[in-house]
Design goal:
It is a single chain. By secondary structure, the protein is an alpha/beta fold. About 45% of the residues lie in helices and about 20% in strands. The chain has eight helices and eight strands; from the N terminus they run αβββαβαββααβαβαα. Strands 4-1-5-8-6-7 form a six-stranded mixed beta sheet, sandwiched between helices. Strands 2-3 form a two-stranded antiparallel sheet. A hairpin with a 7-residue loop joins β2 and β3. The longest helix has about 30 residues. About 40% of the residues are buried. Bound molecules: zinc ion (ZN). The site of zinc ion has 6 residues, from loops.
Length: about 240
């Protein structure tokens, strides 16, 4: 009985960590657009696919910790509003969920980004797509803020990326989605959130064959479980 009470005391007094899961884009801002068929009649928008995956990640995380979504509907949320929500819910981690796109229809693979101000050319290219439609205050995200946030978060974000990468690697490999690894990137949503975090690019929506894989409920379920397991592994050690 004593141990039973001790268990409850521990569970209910230990402070649960808070993770804010951020489905990219929304509302008028559709993000990348892909097609499931050659006639281009079956369109898939990044905003919808990212919401599907983000909801699953949140559901998985909620089994072990406290988690919230920046949006649960198809609506426009500015990058600043996403960052403000992180303050409001006192998030310890920020997890932004996106899908990739390339002018080359053969572009493919899964990538994990953490905030860094390193001028990696490949990373810069992707940064632009996710930094579009900056509004108001977001336009003045300055180098000083970015440098400061990088300095405060980079080691934690890298470790979070490594933990998540360990868990997603076997899943994406099994689905024949190329593992493009962990990369530095200058994503304003990560800078504005001012806390350790990741931006996930969970496959290329612009590649019709990859889109058929990543649009599967089964892939999204397994990926969500793996992402949540990686986040939990990070939280257990920090
Ligand atoms: Zn995106």
């Amino acid at each position: 009985m004593k141990y039973f009470l001790l268990f409850f005391f521990f569970v209910f007094t230990s402070e649960a960590k808070v993770v804010l899961v951020d489905p990219g884009h929304g509302g008028d801002e559709s993000g990348a657009v892909g097609h499931l068929d050659t006639k281009k009649t079956r369109r898939v928008f990044e905003k919808d696919l990212s919401l599907r995956l983000a909801k699953k990640v949140k559901e998985e995380l909620s089994k072990t910790t406290t988690s919230y979504l920046t949006r649960s509907l198809d609506r426009l949320v500015t990058l600043q509003e996403r960052a403000d929500l992180a303050d409001m819910v006192k998030a310890d981690l920020f997890l932004s969920i996106h899908f990739n796109s390339s002018p080359n229809p053969k572009g493919h693979g899964f990538e994990l980004y953490y905030l860094d101000n390193n001028s990696n050319a490949a990373a810069k290219k992707v940064e632009n797509a996710e930094n579009l439609n900056l509004k108001g205050e977001e336009l003045v995200v300055n180098q000083i803020l970015v440098d400061l946030v990088v300095q405060q978060t980079v080691s934690h974000s890298k470790e979070l990326a490594r933990k998540v990468h360990e868990k997603i690697r076997p899943i994406v490999t099994r689905y024949k989605v190329v593992d493009r690894g962990i990369k530095p990137g200058l994503f304003y949503v990560l800078a504005l959130s001012k806390r350790p975090g990741l931006l996930v690019e969970a496959g290329f929506i612009s590649n019709p064959s990859e889109l058929r894989t990543i649009n599967q409920e089964k892939y999204l379920n397994e990926l969500a479980r793996a992402i949540a397991a990686g986040v939990q592994a990070y939280l257990d050690h920090n």
